[in-house]
TrEMBL record:
One example GO MF annotation: magnesium chelatase activity
NCBIfam families: Cob-chelat-sub
Biased segments, Polar residues type: 380-389
Name this protein carries in UniProt: Mg-protoporphyrin IX chelatase
Annotated VWFA domain residues: 480-657
Family: Belongs to the Mg-chelatase subunits D/I family.
Length: 663
């Protein structure tokens, strides 16, 4: 087994270590969500934590890690009698992004359940993680129904597995830790709220600290055992401190003054519900215990707010996580006189809010780059086609449902009709691979004609594997909405581009809620660019769209060919995800030989592949050439004039075009 990187050897941010340690002291805090750029040692710190957790006593032979002092009365391997058990190290169980529901919660042997009435249950990862750590890397990429199951188990402390009336329950209490890179998509607000604490991590910009990161990593890679031995004393000290804090935790007093500060802080930041108040109270109590105190101070409340509230105050995905610390200090100061418990004493025992040693934190680096755009051939543009600065998007709005016609089989989402594992039952079929959703009536119907031939003599139904039928279900899928936006000089009217940007932002918000991917291709000047590769990250999308400049010639064919290439690559990555292409242009094509004919040939590629498409005609003025309508005909889609386009109705127009296409 590979020696893990020592927890105390991680360089940098203290907040990540503190949040993990507080959950080790008090799992009731509710877990940690670690957000940050790639290469910041999120996973390294989480994996290192498991080595610090105290050993757990378990009932010998119990697959569900029952505590011998108080065994679970409903344990599937029970009943167990209270007594002494054996000790084993605390486990850290990793949940892969591509895990199935059965792998997470466990699986019942349906064949034995129907034929013998036996609850033959194979435990899943939730059972393995009981009384340990359950770690989900890239939790934002996990399927929604798995996240729901995971968070329900974490909230209830138990997992329930039900298949056609046969149910199994077992205890599942664990420290839930998720990591994610926001560039790859966000979690829904209701899921964010289920994590007790959140921490934002970023690579240090201090050269000396980065040097130390590299030095320690190289030393660990050369000889993990020797490197771990160098940090054994520090690891043992933290382990002992966790044990001491756990023992002290029941004695910590949360006074009325501290409770008032917690309630006032949550009210001041307008967080929804009461979960934030409860998490803050538990976090402040754990902070006091970690610092070796039995009283909760104002500094504990402040630190608890910084860990528990940033992800709960976001009203929409465009809001950056974080807190106004000046406002936080004003609120705490206003209620500081409510009780002597709340008078901070930085020189008292355990002062400092229980911060870990400064020689700890995650490592990594990140960098960004921007590519300047030049005019066609590097030459200055004519005065009418000069590049103009980016305009601000109009205010986002709630969109109507946009859907792709027909029935798909894409990733689970909330937009278009699809055959999925979750949804309403529409029929039955033979299972392909493992049976996951039994269609009981169809299974009984398949087995019934063979009962005499199989020698049935008792009341039980003789069921063979060939009789089993999988439920065919219809639900909703997520789609790829790819915008192809003309950003040339002919489209540079500020009000026009502002409305277009506002519409795209609105659909991004809708896509975030419906679990879609959204992409943005722009064309102007000498060619086309993928301004936004297909993504679910509305933060990245908003930033790219806001900075989009306009001006230059109109290489329409280049924009369509770039969009076609994006769809080709995306089909290789995710062949089941269907796409809708929305082209926003006045239909003009300039630059290069035969630009109009070339644009027509590019458009016919989409028609040949039957890609759903809509052209938003942005041509204006008393004399109109109708070029956008011709483009829509080449695409096999429908055109909508700019006069019909309003900032609050673009999604409805797209839906209407798709409804007409389906008819």
């Amino acid at each position: 087994m590979t020696t893990p990187f020592p927890f105390t050897a991680v360089v940098g941010q203290d907040d990540l270590r503190l949040a993990l340690l507080l959950n080790a002291v008090s799992p009731a805090v509710g877990g940690v969500l670690v957000r940050g750029e790639k290469g910041t040692a999120k996973s390294t710190a989480v994996r290192a934590l498991s080595a610090l957790l105290p050993a757990v006593a378990v009932v010998p032979g119990c697959r569900f890690s029952c505590d011998p002092a108080s065994p679970d009365p409903g344990c599937p391997d029970g009943p167990h009698e209270a007594g002494t058990g054996t000790e084993r190290p605390a486990r850290m169980v990793e949940l892969p992004v591509g895990a199935s529901e059965d792998r997470l919660v466990g699986a019942l042997d349906i064949e034995r359940a129907l034929a013998e009435g036996v609850k033959a249950f194979e435990p899943g990862l939730l059972a393995d993680a009981h009384r340990g750590i359950l770690y989900v890397d890239e939790v934002n990429l996990l399927h929604d129904h798995l996240v729901d199951l995971l968070l329900d188990a974490a909230a209830m402390g138990a997992s329930y597995v039900e298949r056609e009336g046969v149910s199994v329950r077992h205890a599942a209490k664990f420290l839930l830790v998720g990591t994610m890179n926001p560039e790859e998509g966000e979690l829904r607000p209701q899921l964010l709220d289920r994590f007790g604490l959140t921490v934002e991590v970023a690579a240090s910009r201090e050269p000396d600290q980065r040097v130390e990161v590299v030095r320690r990593r190289l030393a660990y890679d050369d000889d993990p055992d020797v490197f771990a031995a160098r940090w054994a004393q520090e690891e043992a000290a933290v382990r002992q401190r966790i044990v001491a804090a756990r023992e002290l935790l029941p004695q910590v007093r949360l006074g009325d003054g501290a409770l008032r500060q917690i309630a006032a802080t949550c009210a001041a930041f307008e967080v929804d519900g009461m979960r934030a108040d409860i998490v803050m109270a538990r976090t402040a109590t754990a902070l006091a215990a970690w610092a070796g105190r039995t009283d909760v101070l104002a500094e504990d409340v402040r630190q608890a707010a910084l860990l528990a509230l940033p992800h709960r105050r976001r009203r929409n995905p465009f809001d950056a996580p974080g807190l106004d610390e000046d406002k936080l200090d004003e609120t705490l100061e206003q209620f500081s006189g409510e009780s002597p418990d709340d008078d901070p004493d930085p020189d008292g025992p355990g002062g400092g809010g229980g911060q870990p040693a400064p020689d700890s934190g995650p490592q990594g680096d990140g960098a960004g780059d921007a590519r300047p755009e030049a005019g066609e051939g590097g030459q200055p543009q004519a005065s009418g086609a000069q590049e103009q600065s980016a305009v601000r998007a109009a205010e986002p709005f709630r969109t109507k449902v946009l859907s792709v016609p027909g029935i798909g089989e894409g990733a689970a989402g909330r937009r278009s009709r699809a055959r999925t594992e979750h949804g309403r039952t529409t029929g039955a079929r033979r299972p392909r691979g493992a049976l996951t959703k039994l269609h009981l009536a169809a299974t009984v119907q398949a087995a019934a004609p063979h009962q005499r031939a199989r020698g049935r003599s008792g009341p039980g139904l003789v069921v063979r594997r060939d009789d089993l039928r999988q439920a065919a279900r219809e639900g909703r899928e997520g789609n790829l909405v790819l915008f192809v936006v003309d950003a040339s000089g002919s489209m540079a009217a500020r009000q026009r581009m502002s409305a277009v940007k506002g519409a795209v932002l609105s659909l991004l918000l809708d896509a975030y809620q419906r679990r879609d991917k959204v992409g943005l291709v722009t064309f102007r000047g000498a060619g086309a660019d993928v301004a936004l590769p297909p993504t679910s990250s509305v933060d990245a999308a908003a930033a790219r769209l806001e900075s989009l400049p306009t001006g230059g010639r109109t290489p329409l064919a280049a924009g369509l060919l770039k969009a076609h290439e994006v769809l080709r690559v995306e089909r290789l990555r995710d062949p089941a995800r269907r796409a809708l292409v929305v082209v926003v242009t006045d239909g003009r094509a300039t630059g290069g030989p035969e630009p109009v004919a070339l644009a027509g040939r590019a458009a016919r590629l989409f028609a040949a592949e039957q890609v759903a498409s809509v052209v938003v005609d942005c041509e204006s003025g008393p004399v109109r050439l109708g070029l956008a309508g011709q483009l829509a005909g080449e695409l096999g889609g429908t055109a909508v004039t700019l006069d019909e386009l309003r900032a609050d109705s673009i999604a409805g127009l797209v839906k209407g075009m798709q409804s007409g296409r389906a008819a």
